[in-house]
């Protein structure tokens, strides 16, 4: 009986981990979709720099506000300057979420 309970608990843990990965992937996908929309581009990769894509100050404020609203983290514009590549910004957001 203990072995069955252990197997069930492990399976639940795996499902929980997989669900978490799916949710994180969906959030990243929404984030990239928002970036593409704000920056008015159809081509956005993890290695793209927001500044190489032509981000301006108003767009930076939109991005910052969207991040704060959707990820429930506090962020400064300077944080986006420091993490201006798409993947770096995604990683920074994930770190900020764990600090909360």
Low-confidence stretches: none
| Structural class determined from secondary elements | mainly alpha
Order of helices and strands: HHHH
- Number of H/I helices: 4
End-to-end separation in angstroms reads: 39 Å
Overall, the morphology is globular
Average the pLDDT over all residues and give the rounded result.
82
The proportion of residues forming helix, as a percent range, comes to: over 70%
The gyration radius over C-alpha positions equals: 17 Å
**How many β strands by DSSP?**
0
Features:
100 residues, PP-bd_ACP, globular, 73% helix, mainly alpha, phosphopantetheine, phosphoprotein, PKS_PP-bd
Describe this structure in words.
With 100 residues, the chain is mostly helical. It has a domain at 46-99. The protein is built from four helices and no strands. The longest helix has 38 residues, at 2-39. It is globular, with a radius of gyration of 17 Å. It starts with a helix and ends with a helix. Keywords: Phosphopantetheine, Phosphoprotein.
Entry summary:
By secondary structure, this protein is an all-alpha fold.
List the SSEs and their pairings:
Elements: H1 2-39, H2 57-71, H3 77-82, H4 86-99
Helix pairs in contact: 1-2
Domain Carrier: 22-97
InterPro entries: ACP-like_sf, PKS_PP-bd, PP-bd_ACP
GO molecular function, one term: phosphopantetheine binding
